[in-house]
Amino acid sequence: MSFFKKIFSKEKKETLDKGLEKSKTSFFSKLSKAVAGKAKVDDDVLDNLEEVLVSSDVGVDTTLKIIDRIEERVARDKYLGTDELNQILREEIAGLLSETNTGDETDFTIPKNTKPYVLMVVGVNGVGKTTTIGKLASQFKKKGLKVVLGAADTFRAAAIDQLQVWADRTDVPIVRQEMGSDPASVAFDTVQSGINQNADVIIIDTAGRLHNKVNLMNELSKIKRVMQKVVPDAPHDVLLVLDGSTGQNAFEQAKQFTKATEVTSLAVTKLDGTAKGGVVIGISDQFQIPVKYIGVGEGIDDLQVFNKHEFVDSFFK
Question: Any idea where the SRP54-type proteins GTP-binding domain is (predicted)?
Fold first, then answer.
């Protein structure tokens, strides 16, 4: 872990610790009740642990995987003390996260040989989608990258205006049209404009309507098609933003969006205001999509690149 400490700054780590405080406190108060009066990990402890994980929004399927892994260790080691459970859980959850989140990134980067890097952002309204885009723009700009935003959520005037606020705040150009315009047309213009401005990163916001999956699917497919007229392999990343504080509802949203379009990465927001941080573990495992970013505070720098080692370390501190 010491290697990660060196490249994951002290300030970032403190923000992550603080952001996961509610989740951690809730989890460990439940865990201590689950093992109360028990010296070794037996069937009762495992049953209680299953309940703790499910009620911490890890999700049923992922919980069962974790329990199976611990049962294997109990069978192998013959005796496991409840005092070892924290460390075992830590190891097994880190192992589970490693299956999907293979990288150990600690900073905002884009592939070196991809310019412009086109990022399409999807997610329902209210999950922190536009805020995530604004914070991403800020972080990329800090790295010296030229960023262009596209307001392709033309379904709501508020969405266009909100993105404009972030564009002004971060001092990056934005391409926008009137409410009700064709979202694909905005996306096309944004990519074209990004190329003309020699942009490194192009971030496209999209509408977050789920009431009709067929319309959403068609719209997202059309946006992709028109962008590919300008950049053949765009988008390079389809980022689904989920609100961590909604717990199981975030699972449902992930299910709907992965049916509607090919999602390649996840951002889980609002983890600082909730005890449902376990949702990160479950969603990453169930959908086999890497978690790229997590929101652990309201500040512009409180969107962090997800690092599985640091996440588990903060969760089990």
Answer: 290-303
Candidates 3.40.50.360, 3.40.50.300, 3.50.30.10, 3.40.630.30; CATH matching 117-307: 3.40.50.300
Residue 125 annotated in ligand binding = yes
Whether 128 has a binding-site annotation, put simply, is: yes
209 has binding-site annotation: yes
272 in a labelled binding site: yes
Does 270 appear as a known binding residue? yes
Q: Where are the domains of the chain?
A: 3-99, 117-307
123 marked as binding residue? yes
Contact of 254 with 264, CB cutoff 8 Å: no
Per-residue pLDDT, averaged over 139-168, amounts to 95
Q: What is 3-99's CATH number?
A: 1.20.120.140
Say what the pLDDT of residue 103 is.
67
- pLDDT score at 292: 95
pTM value is 0.93
| Nearest Cα residue to 204 out of 212, 41, 215, 219 | 219
- pLDDT for 38: 87
Confirm if 125 and 208 have CB atoms less than 8 A apart: yes
Q: How far, CA to CA in Å, does 4 sit from each of 13, 71, 83, 107, 311? A: 10, 30, 26, 12, 11
Map tokens 């600690």 to a residue: 106
- Tens of pLDDT along 166-182? 999 999 999 999 999 99
* 271 belongs to an annotated ligand binding site: yes
70-86 b/e (C-beta count within 10 Å ≥ 16 → b): beeebeeeeebebeebe
Average pLDDT over residues 267-291: 93
Q: How confident is the model at residue 213 (pLDDT cuts 50, 70, 90)?
A: confident
